[in-house]
Amino acid sequence: MEGRRSDKIADLIRKEVSEMFLRTVKDPRIGLITITRVQVTEDCRLARIYFSVPGSEEERERSMEGLNSAKGYVRRELARRVNLRYTPEIIFKFDPSIEYAIHISEVLQSLQKESEEDPDANGRPPHRG
Questions:
Q1: Which of 17, 27, 48, 58 could make an SS bond with 39 (beta carbons 3.0 to 4.6 A apart)?
Q2: For residue 116, is it within any domain?
């Protein structure tokens, strides 16, 4: 039962924080971020907010700086918007899963292209009968 409660709270926090960054947080360092998921501890005292941002390592670091400076505002807004006994502490973490998925897609596309260019290189050894 507790697991489901923390999952519901995590989903609500993801929705509210996404809305904040879309509408009210205007720090230019943050850029175009996507809140990918939120993990809340069972006691709902800590929320790990995972984000993704397109671009270079430098842009990711700038976004992290902006997110960390907005942490107090985000927590106060959560307290105002979401009725919880305790407003969780917030930790922002970069989520590499989207970049990893793009990388895998690129690898698969290059393998498919190679296969189309050389039909004998389809990964199977030649048939010896």
A1: 48
A2: no
The string of pLDDT tens digits covering residues 37-57 is 999 999 989 999 999 988 888
Structural domain contains residue 125:
no
- The CA distances from residue 74 to 24, 40, 113, 126, in Å, are 10, 15, 46, 60
Evaluate whether 70 touches 25 at the Cβ level (below 8 Å).
Answer: yes
Domain assignment of residue 71, given as a range: 2-96
Q: Considering the entire predicted model, what is its pTM?
A: 0.76
The CB-side HSE value for 50 (13 A sphere, CA atoms) comes to 11
Q: Is 62 part of any domain?
A: yes
Classify 42 as helix, strand or coil.
Answer: coil
Check if the beta carbon of residue 18 is closer than 8 Å to that of residue 35.
yes
What's the CATH code of the domain at 36? 3.30.300.20
Strand order in the sheet with 34-40: 34-40, 46-52, 89-94
Please report, for residues 86, 88, 115, 125, the alpha-carbon distance to residue 128 in angstroms, rounded to integers and kept in the order given: 70, 65, 20, 9
